[in-house]
Specification:
169 residues, 8-stranded antiparallel beta sheet, two-stranded antiparallel sheet, 3 helices, 25% strand
Amino acid sequence: MFDKNRVARWCAPALLGLFALALTTLLQAQVTPDDPDWKELDAPTPPAFSTGKLLPLDMPPYVSVKFGIDPSTLSIGVDGIVRYVVVTRNTSGTVNAMFEGIRCGTGEVKTYARANDKGMWSTVTEPKWRVFTDNLPSKHAWVFARQAACDGRATAASSTSDIIKALKK
């Protein structure tokens, strides 16, 4: 006689294992570089930025620092890197900025330069790619990637106008 409950008890763990394996493979594919010969272009000089038309990032409510992207600084390089200036404002009103790049295919961010509250840039001497999930002081790059910069968290958005539209939603 066919016992449906017995078959279900046997199949459920097997199906769950297959699902976990498929999910792991999919997640690994999203952070594996497509091109082992990929080379990053030289980063441009940090652009001038404005605090007047910032597009806010949807940070979690417990984050007191406000983050916004200056849309005039957005670019997508032929190397696939989304570069931008993110401006921060803390609860006391102090404004700082960072010129960064996101590599969507690997889930990484790099800070090229930082600006102080007077808008003066200081370049990072040896900028390094860091994975979004590293223990960083802020998860704003991960939020920006998910909210607008990356299409499906695997490739850069197709245009800066698409990024701006996604930030305005």
